[in-house]
Amino acid sequence: MKKIRLWMVISLLLFLTACNFAPNITTNVTTQTTNESDVVWLNISTKEQLMAMDLTKNYQLVNDIDLGIEEWIPLGNQSVPFSGMFNGKGYTISNLRITLSHGGFVGLFGVVVGKVYDLKITNVFIDVVHQGILYVGGLAGYVSNDVVDVFVSGNIVAQNHHSNTFAGLLAGFVTAKISSSMSATQFIPNILENIQVEGTLSVNGKNFIYAGGLVGKLYNTKLKNIDVDARLFIAHEQYRAYIGGVVGHNYSGILQGFESVITDPDIEQIGLRANVEIHVLSQGTRISVGGLMGYNNYGVISQSAVNASFTLSAQEIVSGGIIGEDWQGTLQSLVVKVVYIIDPLSLHESKTLSLGGVSGYSNETTTYQFVYFTSSGSSLQNNMGSLLEDVSLLTNAMFYSSDLNWDEPIYILPSIELFD
Fold first, then answer.
1. pTM summary value
2. Residue 369 and residue 386: Cα distance in Å, rounded?
3. Residue among 218, 382, 237, 208 at smallest CA distance from 297
């Protein structure tokens, strides 16, 4: 097969996947694993040292830091992102407060192309109004690298009545590192692993909204061992909104088409656990809502559990307990308990309502295996999984290994806590 430069594929996919408008941020690509013993670490023990970081160097916390009540200026922006490594060493940064939009990149970090790990961020308070494209999250507005062992808790409010909004309790937009000189064989997806978020996300926006309990928009990124306990409140003015308990809009198909050089093109999301309430009031053309993801394209989602409640009002609704709208995905070893409350008066007479225990819509290439659901509220139009008639199985550990085919004991115990 003729070798195609990756940047051509990226340009096309960004256009096709609902006008993502990703910022033009240059990132360096490496295929080598950093040996932490060789890293020169700079210690941070105070708020003042955190604020004064050199964005190209590597830092580690040596104690907890309270940011107080002063306005926080996000670390890194589109022109000068944070490109080093940040090791929280298990310590906590508390009382992050942001009330200004700071150029549309909002979080502890504005833009991150380095690595962040072993960090807790608590008592986040973000309440911003912005007139351009907005990226907002407790950790960062925009991320293009690995994030591992991170906890975020707090409340985020984002208002944007002029453009698109990307919002999540962890980050607004997360993408793999990409360079215009890359070939397909050099591409490596980044990973979000061992992440826990809890809190409230409220978005009032125009145009396209990408909102998730974890991340608003996920692009060619692996997820592993993710816990979300969140409440999402979305007010949407026009066009489309993609809302998910974990991810609003997920695209994992960049390796498709390169089968001759890459034998395993799928990007995996494994061990996702979501306990979520999602409330959407939309005047736009369509909303896609899911307990895990509002929209999913390609990729493999497995060994995951959802406990979700949806209250939805829109002209056209596509919603599933696990995925709102799925294209070419692989859904396996999943279980969901979902409650629907639908406003029938909001539906446009020429539009459709599509509710599913598993997915609201899926095309003919979507694959289902060991997928179970139980639902209540509005009647379902689309049932692609298996109805779970015995709800007591949700708290039976053996059910997860025997019927859902989960690996034991990695994900069983945390998932059962969802249904207690």
1. 0.90
2. 9
3. 218
